[in-house]
Amino acid sequence: MLRLAPVLLLLPACLSLQSEEQKAEAAEKALLARHDELMAQMDQLYGLRQQLQTIPDTVAAGRQRRALLGAEAGMLFWMHHYRKPADTVAVEQRLAYYAAQQQRMDSVGVLFRTSQDSARLLVEASSAASPSAH
């Protein structure tokens, strides 16, 4: 029994390490899932930009095209700068990195949503105002 005591003392530490490791894996998976979710919207950004090209060139249309391009650029910037931490990096540091990256991805998500919503409103308003819509 005395020989098992040191092993039993190490067991909680191993379990704790494993759960921290699992947290890091889960954080990375959540981050990459958010990235994938936004990437699926890239075609929508492009389509809205194309629709904006068909309406009269106003300040609002230009602003919306730039907003859509900004959202796209935000995603591309994130993708070019994201670097998965090595497994040898301490779990706490990896968790902090993933949390910071998740905040950046959430900011890109806000850009996606607001630029798409505003562009859609402008396209709809333009369609409703055009004589061919009646």
Polypeptide structure, described:
The structure is a single chain. The protein is mostly helical and about 130 residues long. It has one domain (about 20-130). The protein has four helices and no strands.
Number of strands: 0
Low-pLDDT stretches:
none
Main beta-sheet strand count, sense and barrel state? none
User: What structural class should be given to the helix and strand makeup?
Assistant: mainly alpha
How much helical structure, as a percent, in the residues?
over 70%
Tally of helical runs: 4
Number of domains: 1
Sequence-ordered SSE layout with sheet pairings:
Elements: H1 4-39, H2 42-53, H3 59-81, H4 91-129
Helix pairs in contact: 1-4, 2-3, 2-4, 3-4
Give a quick precis of the structure.
This protein has 134 residues and is mainly α. Helices cover 82% and strands 0% of the residues. The protein has one domain.
